[in-house]
Design a protein that fits this description.
The chain is of the alpha/beta class and 226 residues long. It has a single domain, classed as Aldolase class I (TIM Barrel, Alpha-Beta Barrel), CATH 3.20.20. Helices cover 31% and strands 18% of the residues. The chain has 8 helices and 8 strands, in the order βαβαβαβαββαβαβαα. Strands 1-8-7-6-5-4-3-2 form an 8-stranded parallel sheet. Strand 3, helix 3 and strand 4 form a beta-alpha-beta unit. Helix 6 runs parallel beside helix 8. It is globular, with a radius of gyration of 16 Å. The protein starts with 11 loop residues before the first strand and ends with a helix. The relative contact order is 0.17. The N terminus is likely disordered.
Length: 226
């Protein structure tokens, strides 16, 4: 039996601010909004959970009045619980936390939801999909890291494609149609393959902010759905 083709409607493009020119952060955000971005992805790194530092809730508060884009916050920090309220209050619409970041993920996701924010569960490349099975019922989204987190500009890890497909199957078995985001090495070619596997949110960093035309770069990622 031939399987049905993937649903290519409603693909979301979320440029990652980590790859932008920080000296012009507000202008960069305005440019991607004009260029057709759906969300702004914000990578929060603590130098502990991942080997890099980025920024904190102060930047979100500064940018929040400057754009209508939903803030898609990816917390690559541990412990994560002490910082959930700060990022919610700073203007996050979605907060992703890592299954690897602490022992009480179920409670952490419930805390995010109690703050009026969509709760996402993120998973690293080496972590098996079974690790998130017990929280799929309460997570609003799943974020699959397609590189090892910490730095932009890395090469897409090919073995994440069957992982995306397995997570989509797990969600379908539970009667859930939750968004699956992919983060790391996402360009027009890898975006198409991720969509074929079941992903619906394309997070692009250097593929957008290193491009001469942000609108064209965003459209190219979305064209993975075409």
């Amino acid at each position: 039996m031939t399987s049905a083709p993937p649903d290519r409607s409603g693909i979301i493009v979320a440029p990652s601010l980590l790859a932008a020119d920080f000296s012009r952060a507000a202008e960069e955000v305005a440019a991607i909004e004009v260029g057709g971005a759906d969300w702004l992805h914000l990578d929060i790194m603590d130098g502990h959970f991942v080997p890099n530092l980025s920024f904190g809730p102060q930047l979100l508060r500064a940018l929040r009045p400057r754009t209508t884009l939903p803030f898609d916050v990816h917390l690559m920090i541990a412990p994560v619980d002490p910082y959930l309220a700060a990022f919610a209050e700073a203007g996050a619409q979605h907060i992703h936390l890592h299954i690897e970041a602490g022992p009480h993920t179920h409670r952490s996701l419930q805390t995010v939801k109690s703050l009026g924010v969509a709760a996402g569960i993120a998973i690293n490349p080496a972590t098996p999909v079974e690790a998130i099975a017990e929280v799929l019922e309460i997570a609003d989204m799943v974020l699959v890291m397609t590189v090892n987190p910490g730095f932009g500009g890395q090469k897409f890890i090919e073995t994440m494609l069957p992982k995306i497909a397995r997570i989509r199957a797990m969600l379908t078995e539970r009667g859930r149609d939750s968004p699956i985001g992919v983060d790391g090495g996402i360009d027009s070619l890898t975006a198409r393959r991720c969509i074929d596997a079941g992903a619906t949110v394309m997070i692009g960093g250097t593929s957008i902010f290193a491009a001469p035309d942000y609108g064209h770069a965003i459209a190219s990622l979305r064209a993975g759905a075409g």
